[in-house]
Amino acid sequence: MRIFFTGGSGKAGHHVAPFLASQGHQVTNADLTPLGHDDVTDLRVDLTDAGQVYSAMAGMPTFDDLDAPGHEGGSAYDAVVHFAAIPAVLIAPDATTFATNITAHYNVLEAATRLGVRKVIFASSETTYGICFAHGERKPLYLPVDEEHPVVPEDSYAMSKVAGEVISRSFHARTGADVYGFRINNVIEPHEYAEKFPAFLDDPALRRRNIFAYIDTRDLGQMTLRALETDGLGFEMFNVANADLSVAATTGEIIETFYDGVEVRKEMGRDETFYSIDKARNLLGYSPEHSWRDVLEDPRTKA
User: How many structural domains is the chain composed of?
Assistant: First the structure.
């Protein structure tokens, strides 16, 4: 596939874009900052400029296309993966975060669908559930948190992500294209297990705002590939996380300490994530392979 990938220079993108290229896909990274990876084509694009987005998506993916048949009247790309965004609060003023993210999102979806791209995957966020950046403590309404849980955030970043989901559903309704959204949990790079997780194992409270979950960049790459290879679902939202908790405390211990009185809707495993990935497993065949336990010793197993 030829993939127009936005935000390929970001924390998640700079792992996922090269991974897709390693699977035989041609990947163009549309970003203000080049990725500089040998297997990925960089294209500098300001996604808040509708003209730039349209022109970039309608243009040639690579120099090799100079000798290829033309694609007048549509896009040469088979799919769009839209990861670009201001990735959290407190990076830019709130109004800037909201305006930048929804403008870029609209421009990407409009260009893709008008140019005939039939598969769009976009990054939403765990923050849409209103827990991560809430003022004070907010608990889930029930456990595990699945895609049917209400999304009522307080912060500008998560608001922009909820708006992006509505925009995406609307473009699917207009065009019938497959549009899949990922509510991505806290993105963890492999080197961060040794750097960050010892503190999490000592103090589970550090992970409360992330619903005690995480997503390894390598498994996010797998999830993206699975979505690209799965057609015909229409518009769907998927939680994206690893299968286990990001802490050493067990599921039962976390419920007792942090979620007393919260409804638990199914029997859960000893170390099972509270950020349900059942839908991704069932519809996409997603099967996360990585864990902090591959790098660090679980302190509960020490003599």
Answer: 1
